[in-house]
Amino acid sequence: MIVHMHGTAEMIFTGDELLRGDIVNSNQAFLGEALLRAGLFATHSLCVADSLDLIAHAVEEALARQPDVLLLSGGLGPTEDDLTREAVAQALGLELVHHEELLEQVAARFQTFNMSMPPSNLKQALLPHGAHALPFTGTAPGFWLAADDTIIAALPGVPRELHVMWDKELAPLLRQRLDTTTGVEVRRLRVAGMGEGTLAEALRGLSWKGGDVEIGTRAGAEGITLVLRCATGPEAHAHLDTAEHEVRRILGRKIFGTGNADMAEAVGHLLRAHGLTAATAESCSGGLIAKRFTDVAGSSDYFQGGVVSYSNQAKIDLLGVEEELLQRHGAVSPEVAAAMARGAAERLHADCAVSTTGIAGPGGGSEEKPVGLVYVATAVHGDVETARYLMFRTRQEIRTRTAQTALDLLRLRLLTLGTTT
Amino acid sequence: MIVHMHGTAEMIFTGDELLRGDIVNSNQAFLGEALLRAGLFATHSLCVADSLDLIAHAVEEALARQPDVLLLSGGLGPTEDDLTREAVAQALGLELVHHEELLEQVAARFQTFNMSMPPSNLKQALLPHGAHALPFTGTAPGFWLAADDTIIAALPGVPRELHVMWDKELAPLLRQRLDTTTGVEVRRLRVAGMGEGTLAEALRGLSWKGGDVEIGTRAGAEGITLVLRCATGPEAHAHLDTAEHEVRRILGRKIFGTGNADMAEAVGHLLRAHGLTAATAESCSGGLIAKRFTDVAGSSDYFQGGVVSYSNQAKIDLLGVEEELLQRHGAVSPEVAAAMARGAAERLHADCAVSTTGIAGPGGGSEEKPVGLVYVATAVHGDVETARYLMFRTRQEIRTRTAQTALDLLRLRLLTLGTTT
C-alpha cells in the first residue's frame, strides 16, 4: 500500500447494473487515478445495490473510517432507482431541501430539446440540507457537503458527465478545501519489445536509489507501462527526472513514449519528422495495423493506405507477390512477408511499409508452422528486413501483439534513420 | 433491485492497482453475472487496499450482513501484498494450516518451467483452518470454507485463472451446496440500426405481459443489447421464448444475433450459408471493417481481403476509382463510395463488398461536408447501394459506428437474398 500520501478517500458506486455485470465500472479507475493526483489514496471502493438502506448504511460505514473525501457516483437521475440524495440525507440525519434555481437549470435542459420536463425530474432539485450543488453538463446535478472532517461529493454515473464534473468542479474544490501539500506525481513510460520478466531483470541493475520514486509495471497486449510515482513537493520533478533518466539509460529505445502514448502515434511522429509516408500489407493482422495507423487523427498526412491480403490471390493481384514464391515457401514465410512489404510500398507509393503473415489460429496450424508463427517485414526506402516470432495465447492476443510488434519494428528502423541522416 | 432471487452474495477485491486506477476491475463484471446465473444477486462489491486489517475488517462487515456467498478475488500470490489467506483467517479467528499436498502442487508448477521454487511461495500452501483448496490452473491455489450460513471462497485475481476456477470448481460446488432452486435465466438479443430512444418507443407496443420477464437495455458503440431475465424454473424457458418471440415480432431483422453475437460473425454466417465471398474498401474506417471480419476465426473461408484507400491515389490505383469521379464529387461522396465497393469486389474477386468514405475528424470537416458525414456502399453481385449518415461524437466513435453500420447493411442485403433465392 502506498503510504506517503496526504489523505485517504473512499468511493461508493450505486447501480444494480454494475453488480449484475452488465457494465464494467470504468468510473472507479478514472476516479482512483484522479484522487491519487489530488493526493488522496482510495482505501475502499464499493459498488452497492440500488437500495436506500444499503446505500445509506454504506455511507455510514465509510464515514466511520473518517476518510478525507467520500465520493459517490450514480443515482442522481429522476427515476425511483436514483437514491443517492436520499441515502446521503438519511445517513447524516439531514432533511432534503428544494432548490428552485436547480429546478430551473434542469428544466432548461429539457427546453433545449423542446421538451417539457416530466414531474419525476422534480426530485433532482432536492439536496441534503447544507449541501451545495455542483454545476452539471448533462442532466444530473451533483452536490457536495462537509460532514465532520470528510468532504462528501455526489457525481453522476455517466462517465462523460462524471469526467467533466470532476475536472471542472470537484478537483479545484478539493485542491482549495483540502489545502493539499503532498499529492502524487505520476509519470508513465511505455515499453515495447520486452516481456515482464526481462524488464524486471533489466531494471534490477538500477544503480539509482532514493528520491522516494516508486516504480510499478502494468502489462498489456500492447506492451508494458512503467509507472513512476513520487510524492509531490518542490523536489518531485527532479526526483522523477532522475528516475526517468536512469530507466532510459537501461531501456533506451525500448521506451517508445510517455504518458498514454500510443505506438502508432509514435511511428506517426517519426514519419512526420522525416517527411516519409507509410503503407501496410496485412495477412494475419487483418487490417489491425491500418486501423492503428488511422486511429490517429491527422494520419492521412503520412499514411497512404494498405492492403488486407487474406487470400493468396489478393497477395498476387494487389501486392504483386509472385505466385511461384507462394508455392515454394507458402504464404507464411519470410520470403512472402518481404514481398508483401515491398509490394505495399510500391503499389501505394509509400516510402515505408510493414507487412504481416502468420497463423493467428485457432485453426490452420501444423507441426512445421504452428499457430502463433508470425513473420513481420519492414521496408524502408526499398530496403527490407524480416523477423520471425512465435506468439502465444488467443487469436486476438496474437493479432494484437503482431500489430504492436510490426509498428515497433518500423519505429526502430525510423530511429536508426534518424541518427545517420 | 432484482427481488425474485434465491440468495445474496458479496464480492471483495484486493489490490491497490484497482484503487489507483491502474486497471479496470473486469473481474467484478464477470463474477456479478456468474453469480446471477447461479441464483445469487450481489448486493455489495468492494475493492479494498492491500492491508491486512482493512481486508479482515471488510470480511467481517460483509459476514455481518449474512450473505449466502462471499467471494474474494486476488491476494493469493506469494508476495507480501498477498494477504487474503491471512485476512480471512484473522476475520474468522482461525489458524493458518500448512497443506503439504498444496505445496507439492505449487512446486510442480515451477518444475514445469525447470525453475526451483523460491521460499516466498511457501505461504501459498497455507489455508485457514477448515478451508478446502480449490484446484488451480495458474500459480495461485484458491480455497473455500463455510462460516455459519455463508460460503466464503477465495479466487485468484488473474482473470484467466479466475474464470477457470469459477467455471470448473466454484460454480459446481455452489450449485451443490446451495441447492439453488431459483436462479436467473438470461437471454440477450443484439439490436442494430436503432437508437435507444427509438428502441424504447418500439417496445412500448409490446402486447405481451407477465411471465416475470424483465427486459433491460445496454447500449454501446456496436449497438444495443436487450437483456431478458426470468427467474429459473420449469416455465422459465417458455416465458423467455414468449418474450423473445414478441420482441422479434416488433424488431424483426433489427435483431442480428443472440448472446454475445458479433455483427461480423453474423455477416460471416450469412456469407457461408450462401457460399459467397466478401471484400472491403475502407477510407474513413481505415481497416476496422477488415479487422472485424478477420477477428472471426475461420473468416479466411469467405473473406478475400480489403483495401484501405486512405489516399486518393490508392483509391485510383488499387480500386480503380476514376480520377474524374474524385475530382467531380470529392472523395467523400456517394459516387466514390459506390465506385470503391465495385472496385473492391472486382479486384478481390469477391461476390460482395462494403466500402466507407467519410470524415472521421476531428479535422477535415467543412460546412458542406462536416465531421461525421459518412457514405457507406454495399455491392452484392455487382448491384451497388449507397447510404448517407451523419454520425456524432469522437473520431473513434464515428469509426466504430461506421464499421458496425457497414457490416449491418451488408447483413440486411444478404438477408434479402435469402428470401428470394
Integer tally of domains of chain A = 3
Strand content of chain A: 15-25%
Question: How far apart, in Å, are the first and last alpha carbons of chain A?
Answer: 48 Å
The largest sheet of chain A, given as strand count, sense and whether it forms a barrel, is: 6 strands, mixed
Q: What attributes characterize this protein structure?
A:
14 helices; elongated; five-stranded mixed beta sheet; six-stranded mixed beta sheet; alpha/beta; Maf protein; 421 residues; 25% strand; Alpha-Beta Plaits; Molybdenum Cofactor Biosythetic Enzyme, Chain A; homodimer; 3 domains
Structural account:
The structure is a homodimer of 421-residue chains. Chain A has 421 residues and is an alpha/beta fold. Chain A folds into 3 domains: 7-178, Molybdenum Cofactor Biosythetic Enzyme, Chain A, CATH 3.40.980.10; 184-258, Alpha-Beta Plaits, CATH 3.30.70; 263-420, CinA-like (Maf protein), CATH 3.90.950. Chain A is 40% helix and 25% strand. Chain A is built from 14 helices and 17 strands. Chain A has helices spanning 16-19, 26-37, 52-64, 84-92, 100-112, 159-178, 196-203, 236-251, 263-274, 288-295, 312-319, 323-329, 334-347, 395-420, and strands spanning 7-14, 40-48, 69-73, 96-98, 126-128, 132-134, 142-147, 150-155, 184-191, 214-220, 223-231, 255-258, 278-282, 303-308, 352-358, 373-380, 383-390. In chain A, the strands form 4 sheets. In chain A, strands 2-1-3-8-7-6 form a 6-stranded mixed β-sheet, sandwiched between helices. A 5-stranded mixed β-sheet of chain A has the order 14-13-15-16-17, sandwiched between helices. In chain A, helix 2 (26-37) packs parallel to helix 6, helix 3 (52-64) packs across helix 4 and helix 9 (263-274) packs parallel to helix 14. Chain A is elongated and about 80 Å long. At the A-B interface, helix 1, helix 2, strand 2, helix 3 and helix 10 of A face helix 1, helix 2, strand 2, helix 3 and helix 10 of B. Strand 2 (40-48) of chain A pairs antiparallel with strand 2 of chain B.
